[in-house]
UniProtKB/TrEMBL annotation, chains A, B:
Gene3D superfamilies: Winged helix-like DNA-binding domain superfamily/Winged helix DNA-binding domain
Coiled-coil stretches: none
Name of the featured protein: Transcriptional regulator
Keyword Transmembrane helix carried by entry: no
Keyword field contains DNA-binding: yes
Pfam family, one: HxlR
GO molecular function term, any single one: DNA binding
InterPro entries named in the record: HTH_HxlR (IPR002577), WH-like_DNA-bd_sf (IPR036388), WH_DNA-bd_sf (IPR036390)
Keywords: DNA-binding, Transcription, Transcription regulation
Residue ranges occupied by any HTH hxlR-type domain in the UniProt entry: 8-107
Amino acid sequence: MGLDKEKVENLKTTLEVVCGKWKGIILLELVGRTLRFNELKTELHEASHQTLIKQLKELEADGLIERKAYPVVPPKVEYSLTPYGRELESMLEDMVEWGMRHRSGEKQKEYS
Amino acid sequence: MGLDKEKVENLKTTLEVVCGKWKGIILLELVGRTLRFNELKTELHEASHQTLIKQLKELEADGLIERKAYPVVPPKVEYSLTPYGRELESMLEDMVEWGMRHRSGEKQKEYS
DNA sequence: CGGTATCCAACGTGATACTG
DNA sequence: CAGTATCACGTTGGATACCG
């Protein structure tokens, strides 16, 4: 046998939650602040309206973000991290940092 | 404006590298040890032969793992983390830990 | 034993159009 | 402004069969 099966399952769980095309980025955008739908859409200008909504719904269903709709017209909806989603912050930081090294190093023959 | 564009790009880079269906798990399996192809295949018994090879190739192309082929018959190939891939270890640990909390907490109304 | 080559099904993303 | 519905498309994962 090899690795603890539990660890693998736990990792899978996290990967499933974070690995939507824009999910990680949405979470990063929401670190330390609350954004309206339109603000998110502006930040993620590359993601389509439709896709953005789907990913938000999934993140909400997974308990990572909170959706707060104000009963006004025109509609106003705010998204923020749940306490639960905030527990991902350090991981996101790690990812950003590693990505930075990866991009600057690209062909890191420099390890020799 | 909002978040630093660089941070977003860095995060994207990391997500692309880690978000293959089995990539994260492969990396986790290789933490602290070297495995032959068949051993990996046994560990990841749910992944198909073909898929496993594809993911390994991509991880290799991204510089995360090293492939060492011995010119013997029958063939013997060993996979291990590069120094570069090892820099992901702490992130993987974070993911495992968060996944554990997520699975045990599922409906964490308990935050109140 | 480890890898390649096709081919295909499933899913996720995104475009468009319409609603409250 | 925010969301739903429908459909089209590309990418990915996987099945199968065959090489070194």
